[in-house]
Specification:
Helices cover 79% and strands 0% of the residues. The chain is an all-alpha fold.
Length: 139
Amino acid sequence: MNRASATTRIARLGLASTLLSFVAGIGIANAQTGAPTEESAALNAIDFNFVGQANLGAPFQVGSGRLAEKKGGSAAIRDYAHLMVTSHIPVADALTAILQRKHVTPSSTLLQGAYDAMISTLKADDGAAFDRDYVNGQV
């Protein structure tokens, strides 16, 4: 992978993370307004699937990011990983609060196995292989 395509992929992921953070920020703002406890939410299949994926995705970003903060081969990768960790912790916390308030328990998705495999690979990788696999995992 050349540097330009890696940078483009990181930029795309940064945009996606920013959008997810924005949505979570709205959730935090709504939670802080002292809104009354809501009844159990009935989500349609698409929303339920999204919640399940987001509920796994944010912790994956934190876990893989923490590994990349330590093992990343360049300052750019370590800085990006730090951004993923610091931006996804509030997202995960906000989503958990919203789900608890709405009494929604997301299902485990097929992504759990993929995320577990990626984390295992990253733990075993070093050097350029780690950087490549981390960036590919972000895409």
